[in-house]
Design a protein that fits this description.
Order of helices and strands: EHEHEEEHHHHHHHEEHHEEEEEHHH
Strand order of the largest sheet: 4-5-8-6-7
Number of helices: 14
Number of strands: 12
Radius of gyration: 20 Å
Strand content: 15-25%
Shape: globular
Structural class: alpha+beta
Distance between the termini: 49 Å
Length: 333
């Protein structure tokens, strides 16, 4: 890790002002940035601490919306009565995201910006193998190497990594908006569009870009519609303690007489962004909340999955996670 200068921001605007310098990074909880420095994933001449900005904290109702500040920790979100009541899938995703110690430090603003857990990307510098995310143009070792945990949607020959954030999946399913502040002023980004697949990034001419954040922009918080629908977050992992998802699914369901009237569902760890099953959402109204009825709907919505040679099992696993999330959200077992 190389030396860097450290300063504390007095306001969100002053923090954004410092980000005009490409050699400046922002730190909040610090659970990701310091690892990036240690591994050589990122480097900075200046680090600006926004952890003391009370304007970026707090959870509150705002009309029909729920407002969550970017500096609210995962534990605070997971245990807050307003979130549990109006956005239960998000509360569950936050509590399943990491160990209790990390959840007490990690912020919701930083969590959605974490980088992939691909082992070829997360190796310590100097890398003993090619990785386009670390050295653009060098190649993707995972494509011809180990890729059991990699993408089944949206990948390219340049990269097959997935976005590992649990809360991002719930936020995308809940139609949340990220409030962003940048040099051009404030704007909002729908969380279902916040991350980019490798294909979307390549089509935009920036194949290694991962989000729609512009240089110098800072997430200040999130707004999401409060919902009375039943919700659930299902995370499939190798161990129940601190571990990243192999696949995950977030769902919200409203029922009438045992039939689905509306439903939303998103998959996690299957692409470089949360994957909304929009065609399933359009087809599910009128469907009974049974495994037998749900499976074919989800399978049709996942027909464009393109698994790699070693991760075809993720198609079945993701389908089952989506079905379980819908059934759980609907109150069945």
């Amino acid at each position: 890790m190389r030396d860097f200068a450290y300063a504390r921001a007095g306001t969100a605007e002053s923090a954004v002002g410092t980000l005009a310098d490409p050699g400046t990074s922002v730190i909040a909880g610090g659970t990701e940035l310091l690892n990036w420095f240690r591994l050589g994933i990122a480097a900075a001449d200046n680090v600006v601490d926004i952890g003391g900005l009370d304007e970026l904290r707090g959870i509150a109702s705002d009309g029909d919306d729920l407002r969550i500040g970017a500096l609210v920790t995962l534990n605070e979100i997971g245990e807050h009565p307003l979130v549990v009541q109006a956005a239960g899938a998000l509360a569950s995703a936050c509590l399943q995201a990491a160990s209790a110690q990390i959840r007490n430090r990690a912020t919701i603003g930083g969590n959605v910006l974490q980088r992939t857990r691909c082992p070829y990307f997360r190796a310590e510098e100097p890398l003993p193998w090619p990785c386009n995310k670390r050295d653009p143009g060098s190649g993707c070792t995972s494509l011809a190497g180990r890729h059991e945990r990699q993408a089944i949607f949206g990948w390219t020959q340049d990269c097959v990594a997935v976005q590992p954030s649990d809360p991002a999946v719930a936020l995308a399913m809940l139609d949340a908006q990220a409030d962003v502040l940048g040099p051009a002023g404030p704007r909002t980004i729908p969380m279902r569009e916040f991350h980019l697949t490798q294909r979307e990034a390549a089509d935009a001419g920036q194949p290694m870009r991962e989000t729609r954040l512009e240089p110098g922009e800072l997430i200040t918080g999130y707004r999401l519609p409060a919902s009375a629908d039943g919700q659930a977050y299902v995370k499939v992992r190798e161990r129940a303690s601190y571990e990243y998802a192999i696949v995950s699914a977030a769902a919200a369901v409203r029922l009438d007489g045992g039939l689905i009237t509306t439903a939303r569902v998103a998959l996690g760890s299957v692409a470089q962004r949360p994957w909304r099953l929009t065609s399933a959402e359009a087809e599910l109204p009128g469907t009974p909340l049974t495994r037998e009825a749900l499976i074919p709907v989800i399978e049709r919505a996942m027909a464009d999955a393109a698994p790699l040679p070693q991760n075809g099992f993720k198609v079945t696993m993701a389908r089952n996670a989506a079905v379980r999330a819908l059934i759980t959200a609907g109150g069945a077992s």
